[in-house]
Amino acid sequence: MQSDNLPLQPKIKDSLFSHVKTDLPAGLVVFLIALPLCLGISLASGAPLFSGIIAGIVGGIVVGFLSGSKVNVSGPAASVALVIYMAIESLGSFQIVLSAVIIAGVFQIILGFLRAGTIAYFFPSSMIKGILASIGLILIINQIPHAFGYSGKALFGGMEGGFSANIFREIAGIVNYISIGATVITFLSLLIIFAWDQPALKRYTFFKFVPSALIAVLASIGINQLFISYFPELALSGGRLVQLPAAGSLGEFFSFFTFPDFSQITNPQLWTVALSVAFIASLESLLSTEAGDKLDPYKRKSSTNRELKAQGIGNIVSGMIGGLPVTAVIVRTSANVSSGGRTPLSTITHGTVMLICVMAIPHLLNLIPLASLSAVLFVVGYKLTSVSLFRRMWKAGKRQFVPFFVTVVAVMLTDLITGIVIGGAVSVFMILRDNYRTPFFVDREAHYEGEHIELVLAQEVTFLNKASIMLTLDHVAPNSTVRIDGSQSVHIDDDVLEIIEDFKATAAYKNIKMETIGLDRFYAQRQLS
């Protein structure tokens, strides 16, 4: 029964159509943000541009209906783009990669049924930030050719091929292929994005809700049309523009979808790609779900296991019809919430509007210069690996910075999986090192003969702490007083108890007074066992 002294809590409306007035406009805003990102991520993936659109549609409609989250928005993500890029090169075709996307979706569904939804929280945040930072760096480097109008292959493999010793020579070689028109569009697009996102302008509703990426893309279309009319030598055409297939009928539109090739199903490399996609997509989706729950004004809690299943089904559907991998994306989720999205109707709306636009106005989309999408991806990459991120990690101390930096370098020099293994190993090493070095807190009143020392043991004191405890006790000066406090400990290893016993037995020879607190229960447990 409700207490008379407590105010009645408003009932949260969770039905799909309970917030239509805010969800529909929010879905439109998310679409405006997602469209250039879908095209840009397709570009970064080396996949057909239409595949990013498919992933955006599937993430909006399919995952939107199945996800337990009320505010998550799913679609293609930059974090997976470079895995797909290198997979296309190593496996030989995008159709074969699609089969890996489907297998990754199956893995995600299995993880959901195994209730592995909390798996992301067991990875050190420093390692996760290192993975994203390395992806951001590689994303930026790989967009340099398109930014300057060079239509050759990307410069930097990273996810599979590792660091190329000739990368600087390759970058210098682009000078011979620079397009002035593409370069101008790239720099003007970057200028528009940075100017549009200034806090002074964000105070106004128009600048707050109209995304900078969309304005940059629209401006690039206008600039290129200006080049065509007045400066034809600067105009971009052909492979320097978006090239989406334009359908003359509904039947022709559905013929544009690509279907998977399972001919290399026994290839171990294909399964490695599937595991990579499943890992990154699940990690980003779970982190986005956690962030979305925090942003949700109603503070509703989403089932992470259901989210994994929904993302898995989304990847199976996307892979079946030629789409990139789907993940929940933090940027789109936060934009959805800030725009008024309160139920899955907003993310479904964004996917539906994208489907309608790609069917109705593909000719307009094909006017977009790839250089402007490169500018958008430069900004996306920089947000993943900004200077301020490196500065924050450095200020956080060696325990955070070392695993972070090692992960960044390892991913860039080797590949994603190897980089994660190396980064994880360094993270575990740092944890064990800290556990070894700080099993107790030492309070000294002096640093000479006759000092008073208090050792407050940690909750977990293991055999790894033997050496540090032994050295501390061995260096206690004669005529001192030592108090060992184990009252806050949950577990003390037998080896450590033996060290304390040995010290107690020899303390009298140095005229050391010793007192223990809370250790009797551990000695009693030891005798019983």
Automatic annotation (TrEMBL):
Coiled-coil stretches noted in the UniProt entry, renumbered to this chain: none
Pfam families, alphabetized: Sulfate_transp (PF00916)
Membrane-topology annotation of the record: Multi-pass membrane protein
Start and end residues of each SLC26A/SulP transporter domain: 21-407
Keywords: Membrane, Transmembrane, Transmembrane helix
TM region(s), chain numbering: 24-43, 49-66, 94-114, 121-141, 174-197, 209-231, 270-291, 312-331, 351-380, 401-432
Top-rank taxon, per record: Bacteria
Annotated InterPro entries: SLC26A/SulP_dom, SLC26A/SulP_fam
Localisation per UniProt entry: Membrane
Protein's UniProt name: Sulfate permease
Native organism: Pontibacter amylolyticus
